[in-house]
Design goal:
Blueprint lengths: L4 E2 L6 H13 L5 E9 L7 H17 L4 H8 L2 H20 L10 H6 L19 H16 L16 E3 L3 H4 L9 E8 L4 E8 L2 E2 L4 H19 L2 E13 L10 H9 L3
Parallel strand pairs: 1-2, 5-7, 6-7
Antiparallel strand pairs: 2-7, 3-4, 4-5
Helix pairs in contact: 3-8, 6-8
């Protein structure tokens, strides 16, 4: 197992997943430490993306795992946002979606929009509103974008703020877990010298058969949401997996379905 791997930039999500999966398949144990790559245009919707999503969803239906949309929704529930906008997104998620996904794995978006005490109750700001780290990031980025526009040095000096960070690790939920906690550990939003919003996602472990394609789609949707609401262009999406795996089989499956699916995708 190599110590680290930096792959070439990929133009879109499907290319990124295929490239990473092919790399992992060639590694001892089909795994590596510190897998790093970027998606240059995460907002793209290519024919290759759609074909891969359809193939994966058919595979998921036959093996009982989550579809690309199911996995992506744990990171960003796109249809709720489309229907209710940013104003209704958080409340609708709390009321309608969170009660159905109360597992360690399914609560990524909740971890982004709420901070809770050790009894599970939302922490409140001085105004009485729940602490919402994601919306705080959006507001900070929007203010930064508004004040920077028109400045002559805008394209020469990178716009960064260490406050544009969201950790999905919550001590009140996760401190006693030796395993089984959230694989997505950290999200970092930065605005580059061209005024584009970059997102870097850090995974402590990343499973490329069962989760990674839906994860990348969800991250791309989250990045687009923040960029649109902050009034910024969409920049690259970078994924860092401290350990990445291409599973040879799924739970309760002998590996035949996994092998057939990967082979059909050229992996």
């Amino acid at each position: 197992m190599s110590n680290a791997a930096t792959l070439p930039d990929a133009p879109d999500v499907s290319t990124a997943w295929l490239q990473a999966s092919r790399y992992l398949k060639g590694q001892p144990g089909r795994a590596c430490w510190n897998l790093v790559y970027s998606v240059s245009n995460p907002a793209a919707k290519t024919a290759g993306d759609e074909a891969l999503y359809a193939a994966f969803d058919a595979f998921a239906a036959n093996t009982g795992i989550g579809t690309t949309t199911t996995v992506a929704n744990t990171i960003f529930p796109l249809e709720v946002y489309r229907k209710f906008g940013r104003g209704g997104l958080y409340e609708r998620y709390d009321a309608e979606i969170l009660p159905m996904v109360r597992t360690q794995w399914g609560t990524y978006f909740d971890r982004m929009i709420r901070r809770r005490d050790f009894k599970g109750k939302p922490l409140l700001m001085k105004t009485g509103e729940p602490v919402n780290p994601l919306d705080i990031v959006v507001e900070k980025l929007a203010r930064r974008a508004a004040t920077a526009r028109g400045a002559k040095n805008h394209y020469e000096i990178p716009i960064t703020d260490e406050a544009f960070e969201i950790s999905t690790y919550l001590p009140e939920r996760d401190c006693k877990l030796s395993r089984g906690g959230p694989c997505l550990s950290h999200l970092s939003f930065k605005v580059d010298h061209a005024g584009a919003l970059r997102l870097t996602a850090i995974y402590r472990s990343h499973y490329y058969v069962e989760r990674a394609l839906g994860n990348l789609l969800g991250l791309a949707r989250l990045q687009a949401f923040v960029a649109v609401e902050a009034g910024l262009d969409i920049g690259p999406l970078t994924c860092i997996a401290l350990r990445a795996h291409l599973e040879p089989n799924l739970q309760g499956e002998d590996g035949g379905a996994v092998s057939a699916f990967l082979k059909a995708q050229g992996v």
